[in-house]
Amino acid sequence: MLRGPKWDWSQWTTNPYYAMVIFIIACGSIPKGYDEGGYSASVKLPSFAADFNLVESNWTHDKSGLANRKANITSFNVLGAAFGALFALYLNDRLGRLHSWRLSCVVWASGMFIQVFSSGIYGLLLFARIWSGLGAGALTVVTPLYLSEIGTVA
């Protein structure tokens, strides 16, 4: 009869605080998906389109200009995320993983806050998209690094 390896479960301790920290840190990659998937759909909302002059009947320039405006709102987050991911490498070495994670969360949250209150101001919305992208991109780098460091050795 074949038996698998015997596990020593005595070394495993359940620490609720440790589990909560791991869960919260692991949620660090959610902003990237939320910004790309969830926020991109808001361009189709009638109230959003009216606030940022994205309604085709009100648009006074050519149709490609309107398409570019919608594409910029959607994609400027990715631009910020690319630079945020690169900058996170430097931050991780200088500040450490946990402080980099905290700073990235603050940058992302402040960018989202600015987006909420950029009602009708197109330039401010684009800045906020880039700013929140910096934080979201940095979180995609910092989160796996931090989780790999706090994990137990195999």
From TrEMBL:
Gene Ontology molecular function, alphabetical: carbohydrate:proton symporter activity
Membrane-spanning parts: 73-91, 103-124, 130-147
Keyword Transmembrane: yes
Domain Major facilitator superfamily (MFS) profile: 21-154
Coiled-coil residue spans: none
Pfam families listed in its UniProt record: Sugar_tr
SUPFAM superfamilies in the cross-refs: MFS general substrate transporter
Domain of life of the organism encoding this protein: Eukaryota
Topology in membrane: Multi-pass membrane protein
Subcellular location: Membrane
Alphabetic keyword roster: Membrane, Transmembrane, Transmembrane helix
GO cellular component, one term: membrane
InterPro entries in the record: MFS_dom (IPR020846), MFS_sugar_transport-like (IPR005828), MFS_Sugar_Transporters (IPR050360), MFS_trans_sf (IPR036259)
Keyword Oxidoreductase: no
PANTHER family: PLASTIDIC GLUCOSE TRANSPORTER 4, QUINATE TRANSPORTER, PUTATIVE (AFU_ORTHOLOGUE AFUA_1G16230)-RELATED
Membership in a protein family: Belongs to the major facilitator superfamily. Sugar transporter (TC 2.A.1.1) family.
Protein name stated in the entry: Major facilitator superfamily (MFS) profile domain-containing protein
Classification of source organism: Eukaryota, Fungi, Dikarya, Ascomycota, Pezizomycotina
